[in-house]
Description:
Elements: E1 5-6, E2 16-18, H1 42-45, H2 51-57, E3 64-66, H3 69-75, E4 83-85, H4 87-93, E5 98-103, H5 114-126, E6 131-136, H6 140-151, E7 155-161, H7 162-167, H8 169-177, E8 181-185, H9 191-199, H10 207-220, E9 224-226, H11 233-253, E10 259-263, H12 268-282, E11 289-295, H13 300-303, E12 305-310, E13 319-324, H14 346-353, E14 358-362, H15 364-378, H16 386-403, E15 408-413, H17 421-428, H18 439-443
Parallel strand pairs: 5-15, 6-7, 6-9, 7-8, 10-11, 10-15, 11-14
Antiparallel strand pairs: 1-4, 2-3, 4-5, 12-13
Helix pairs in contact: 2-11, 3-5, 4-15, 5-6, 6-8, 9-10, 11-12, 15-16
Bound molecules: pyridoxal-5'-phosphate.
Pyridoxal-5'-phosphate is lined by residues 111, 113, 138, 140-141, 230, 263-270, 338-339, 383, 385-386, 414-415.
Amino acid sequence: MKQKKFILQESEMPTRWYNIQADMPNKPMPPIHPATREPLGVEDLAHIFPAECCKQELDTEHRWIDIPEEVLEKYKYYRSTPLVRAYALEEALGTPAHIYFKNESVNPLGSHKINSALPQCYYAKQEGTTNVTTETGAGQWGAALSYAAKVFGLECAVYQVKISMQQKPYRSSIMRTFGATVEGSPSMSTRAGKDIITRDPHHMGSLGTAISEAVELATTTPNCKYTLGSVLNHVALHQSIIGLEAEKQMEQAGEYPDMVIACFGGGSNFGGIAFPFMRHNISGERHTEFIAAEPESCPKLTRGRFEYDFGDEAGYTPLLPMYTLGHNFRPANIHAGGLRYHGAGMIVSQLIKDGMMHGVDIPQLETFEAGMLFARTEGIIPAPESSHAIAATIREAKKCKETGEEKVILFNLSGHGLIDMTAYEQYLNGDLMNYQLSDADIEKNLGSSK
Length: 450
Ligand SMILES: *Cc1c(COP(=O)(O)O)cnc(C)c1O
């Protein structure tokens, strides 16, 4: 009998997160203040985020950071997550490649986002915060935060991108079930929201509009902190639990990945699975290829430009050094809501500049074809976001079929798609399409923060 699934014992579970910033040959450039153009320190960020998260954000020294005991306890509810050898998918593709996936869909919230929601709420609580707020696109981050806030006894208010609220109605019910307040963004409850609606009454929202609203709420409400489920360095730090577990599980399987692939919104699940393996590339021991799969309709990694840009649409956040399509970029209403963000995290942006990894952009229909094949072979309906990683994996596995190479490919299944069935329904009915962007579309919003 072939062994298919690898799980860690409690005693084997990682107790520290990995901070790739300590090992990066070129550190990420600092976030800067939009008016003064001065680099930001922990104090500048701490009026928005929990202080411990700010410290982690700017920590370029400590390679390993202890996971707090209380967070480890909560991780144990659903971790370790399984590493699975996808024999059925391999067989369907007729590829000599060995395909493994790390299944982050098995927790009750259904995506990897809970890995960072728990520590963020834990730190907020420790610091005496009573309320947390955030934005959410597809709803996975909002759901994870709502649950984590409840676990640590915090009130939670979520701004959800309006289009996602309509496409995925049950997500807001999930957040409200955990006790959160949910508003569609742009909303009339903040100045930023009102301004956006005044300019465009039919604005269906983006992560950028929702971030503006949540940041405004956090900065105008006492004892309220803003939290972010992606993009930032401390989020990728918390997500490193994925790759650290996978490293041990690959060892159990007796293999090491030639390629690590994840879908890419702001970089948290990618960083989570990739960075622990990348440390062996940085030290020169290994030569793994790292691929971030983004939507063709929101191609910041493959067609964006490296520049300082705002993290949100209204320009409330610090300026961040990143590959971006411009903070005013409006992605098409694709179903992978979690990948509709205009920029990439600072660490990943620097790593791309330094040639340590690369992006690949994938059309919407190809991602659904990949998701269907995965569902029909492995029995798991993937999130439309995760299907980008599956599509990129399938492309590579097909190349192996042509060359006869037995590459070991590891991809991250960032979440399941069971609350995305309207998207599958539309695909099955032939109602989905691709969205290609011309160079002029891409150029339009670049350089807009200058
Ligand atoms: C949010 C989300 C993503 C995209 O965010 P990253 O920070 O790039 O990982 C991908 N997959 C799922 C299931 C998500 O919920």
